[in-house]
Design goal:
- By secondary structure, this protein is α/β, with parallel strands linked by helices.
- The protein has a single domain, classed as Purple Acid Phosphatase, chain A, domain 2 (4-Layer Sandwich), CATH 3.60.21.
- The protein is 33% helix and 21% strand.
- It has 8 helices and 12 strands.
- The longest helix has 13 residues.
- The mean pLDDT is 96.
- It binds zinc ion.
- The site of zinc ion has 7 residues, from loops.
- The site of zinc ion (ZN) has 7 residues, from loops.
């Protein structure tokens, strides 16, 4: 089975379309989406509709989906995120708002090998920023491969025979990670629509369960078009600028 894994799309239609095109060439069997479909970007409705049309096999909500659909307050958001999520709430159609509001919460068990969550398996809104966060999340995971999002950093942690290793952000892409038997893996496929690891290209992953391999990819997409859409929408300028920086 080949799983195509996307996270943190953030209403960036240009990035999503480029990634879907690349995904078709990978001949995947199933689609997994780890949340944050909307927020920050200028095309929340089109992104919701694209994803709904593709009927993902597993789809969970992120914090921006909760606030953007109105089921949670923007309390923990900084000023820019708050202004963008208010715009998102207004821009979303009633149908899409309702659909987002009903997305399930992670973690979701996908099969014997894989589970998915937005932040961590113990708290959908918690962040994995360092080794200690990663160990806590691994401890809570129920499957050997836990896929997570939320940080917008394409990274992998592995615990095998008491050895803890990190798949570094600065290694070449595509990067193949071997999913050894008996090891615990915690991997973020990266953000499709707003990478924050210094690489502006869209991030995603493919898991091949027969080969027991996960491949991390980066893909160039028309960033300037996404930036123009943000400016046209009247969203904060910084949201356009950060796309080019990958920050
Ligand atoms: Zn996000």
């Amino acid at each position: 089975m080949r799983y195509f894994v996307l996270s943190d799309i953030h209403a960036n239609l240009e990035a999503l379309d480029a990634v879907f095109k690349a995904g078709a060439d990978l001949h995947y069997d199933r689609l997994l989406i780890l949340g944050d479909l909307v927020g920050y970007g200028a095309d929340p409705n089109a992104v919701c509709e694209r994803i709904r049309d593709l009927k993902p096999d597993a789809l969970i909500r992120g914090n921006h989906d909760k606030v953007g659909s109105g089921i949670e307050s923007p309390e923990g958001f900084n000023a820019v995120a708050r202004s963008a999520i208010r715009w998102t709430y207004e821009a979303l159609s009633e149908t899409n708002r309702q659909w987002l509001a009903e997305l399930p919460q992670g973690p979701v068990i996908v099969d014997d090998l894989i589970e998915i969550c937005h932040g961590t398996p113990f708290d959908e809104d918690a962040y994995v920023f360092d080794d200690l966060d990663a160990l806590r999340a691994m401890h809570a995971a129920e499957r050997p491969l836990c896929l997570f999002g939320h940080t917008h950093v394409q990274v992998g942690y592995c615990l095998e025979n008491d050895q803890f290793t990190l798949t570094a952000v600065d290694e070449q892409r595509p990067l193949v990670v071997s999913l050894g038997q008996g090891a615990q893996h915690l991997i973020n496929p990266g953000s499709v629509g707003q990478p924050r690891d210094g690489d502006a290209r869209a991030g995603y992953a493919l898991v091949d369960t027969d080969k027991r391999e996960l491949t991390l990819y980066r893909l160039e997409y028309p960033i300037e078009k996404a930036q123009n859409r943000i400016r046209e929408a009247g969203l904060p300028e910084v949201l356009a600028q950060r796309l080019a920086l990958g920050r």
